[in-house]
Write a structure and sequence with these properties.
By secondary structure, the chain is an alpha/beta fold. It has a single domain, classed as Aldolase class I (TIM Barrel, Alpha-Beta Barrel), CATH 3.20.20. Helices cover 39% and strands 19% of the residues. The protein has eleven helices and twelve strands. The strands form two sheets. Strands 1, 2, 3, 4, 5, 8, 9, 10, 11 and 12 form a ten-stranded mixed β-sheet that branches. A two-stranded antiparallel ribbon has the order 6-7. Helix 8 links the parallel strand 10 and strand 11. The longest helix has 18 residues. It starts with a helix and ends with a helix. The protein binds ligand PBG.
């Protein structure tokens, strides 16, 4: 009877698993603050993707750790960049056809300073140069689509990036590739473990000049309006659990497909409690995912994707 009257459902096809791709071969390096999550070389990432496909997951979200970083984040848009290579390897493997490949579009993993855009420095003072950043971000999106990304997902939070990406995709003959915008992304302490996983902690300053203030829900709606006006096809809300009210507000206001990202800190925090025996792992994991769906997310990006799919099978 419970199943007949249940209002919210979880299914593996609406879960997306993030992968962190690193150079080399045969590498599976566990991220210390994220048990069960690894930096994977391309060969290992393909094996991981095969597991994801066999579990019926909806797709993968790809991040890259380049061999070298520089001020401009060149590794993000290079034709043989690390994620570009991984996308080609995944697309070549027919066993992975059921997985949607989503490429995260940002410069922070590729810049030596760790910021999501280009930094203009004047002695002690620094500023993120929004407009020169978006042209590099658009170039990155086009390059990732060309390499095989089914969806590009800008997470940089520069102003005007969605329009610039749409133009760059269209100009390179990739009119059919949708833009999934991290439309409302808050400056959050919950990204801490990710910055270890992606080696992308800012070397100075913080991201508060381009990511949103956690206090502001009306501003979040304005950011989403802007991204939709610029041509966003899907929305991604982030983080998830500390911002369920924002997800609910966006669900009521917008008809676009909308996902939520249960970020690294949300995963680490739950795992820390599991390790101490303070929470029941399976129940707490499923309840956290259900809460995000109930708030209104159509799909969830989560490091629990494989574990949850096993429970749902
Ligand atoms: C890149 C990016 C970040 C995350 C996704 N894309 C880090 C950040 O903005 O600092 C965080 C994801 C997570 O914490 O799991 N800009």
């Amino acid at each position: 009877m419970r199943s007949l009257v249940r209002e919210t459902h979880l299914h593996a096809g609406a879960l997306i698993y993030p992968l962190f791709i690193c150079p080399g071969e045969g590498i599976r390096h566990e991220i210390s603050s994220m048990p069960g999550v690894f930096n994977l070389s391309i060969d290992e990432a393909v094996k991981e993707a095969e597991i994801c496909a066999s579990l019926g997951l909806g797709g993968l979200l790809l991040f890259g750790l380049p061999a070298e970083k520089d001020e401009q984040g060149t590794g993000a848009w290079m034709e043989d960049g690390i994620v570009q290579q991984a996308l080609r390897a995944i697309k070549k493997n027919r066993a992975l056809d059921s997985l949607v490949t989503i490429a995260d579009v940002c410069l922070c993993e590729y810049t030596s300073h760790g910021h999501c855009g280009v930094v203009a420095r004047d002695g002690e003072h620094y500023e993120i140069d929004n407009d020169s950043s978006i042209s590099l971000i658009a170039k990155t999106a086009a390059s990732l689509a060309k390499a095989g990304a089914d969806i590009v997902a800008p997470s940089d939070m520069m102003d005007g990036r969605v329009e610039a990406i749409r133009e760059a995709l269209d100009a390179s003959g990739q009119e059919q590739i949708p833009v999934m915008s991290y439309a409302s992304k808050f400056a959050s302490a919950f990204y801490g473990p990710f910055r270890e996983a992606a080696d992308s902690a800012p070397q100075f300053g913080d991201r508060r000049s381009y990511q949103m203030d956690g206090a502001n829900i009306r501003e979040a709606m304005r950011e989403i309006d802007q991204d939709i006006a610029e041509g966003a096809d899907m929305l991604l809300m982030k983080p998830a659990m500390p911002y369920l009210d924002v997800i609910r507000a966006a669900r009521e206001r917008y008809d676009l497909p909308m996902g939520a990202y249960q970020v690294s800190g949300e995963y680490s925090m739950l795992h820390a409690a599991f390790q101490r025996g303070w929470l029941e792992p399976e129940r707490a994991m499923m309840e956290s995912l259900l809460s995000i769906r109930r708030a209104g997310a159509d799909f969830i990006v989560t490091y629990f994707a494989k574990d949850a799919a096993r429970v749902l099978a």
